[in-house]
Amino acid sequence: MPLPAELADRARDVLAGRVQPVPARDAATVVLLRPGPEVYLLRRKATMAFAAGAYVFPGGSVDARDTDQAVAWAGPSPAAWGKIFKADERLARGLVCAAVRETFEESGVLLAGHGPDSVVADTTGDDWEADRLALIDRSLGFADFLARRGLVLRTDLLKAWAHWITPEIEHKRFDTRFFVAVLPEGQRTRDVGGEADRVVWQRPADALAGDFFLMPPTRATLAELAAYDDLDGVLAARREIVTIMPRAVEIEGEMRLVTS
């Protein structure tokens, strides 16, 4: 994809060594699925500093408290997730916790239950909304939230899907692991989250064909999901997690972003 003029100038500066890339923050994102299959997409507000106006999956940065070992855990261990994502155990714990926390913050969907074989059926009450807002403003830690409600994090409801790193030319950068998860039975998504002004459920192929502004990782993920006819196919897919970081190259005087 061609780069806009301002970003093209920055790309030339980065490539020439005149500007140092900013560090990428660890982050997690979750592709919520329901029968169709359909995916849940949020449109980021036009005022956002990163990816303004883009349709994205729920997700965000790893918070320091996401690595808290007090989080009740059911399913694949942090060590197992670390092996999948080539991360140490502490970071792997943070990535999984961030994935579940951010999904609840941005969609109201909670991948947790009162035991390893249960999942919360409804998170639409006023008390749930108060906790969601407290998590967003960081007045409530995720481990404390789960402990207070007697909940266990259901890591087995997540499936590792991809690993993307924001190009070095960007002003804000994220080192993001992608997960997929099926919307738990009985739970409903919110109409909007704090950083979004619109949400939609769409078949991946329709989202790709529609008039949506999509960042390269979102577009690529939707294209991969469009190949599956049902949820079982997605969940059974064999995935090798390969790190992808698009890079800027100059082709016949035009700066472009490429993934190969």
From TrEMBL:
Limits of the Nudix hydrolase domain: 23-228
The protein's name: NUDIX hydrolase
Matching PROSITE patterns: NUDIX (PS51462)
Organism name: [Actinomadura] parvosata subsp. kistnae
SUPFAM superfamilies documented for this protein: Nudix
Cofactor: Mn(2+); Mg(2+)
GO molecular function, one term: hydrolase activity, acting on acid anhydrides, in phosphorus-containing anhydrides
Alphabetically ordered keywords of this record: Hydrolase, Magnesium, Manganese, Metal-binding
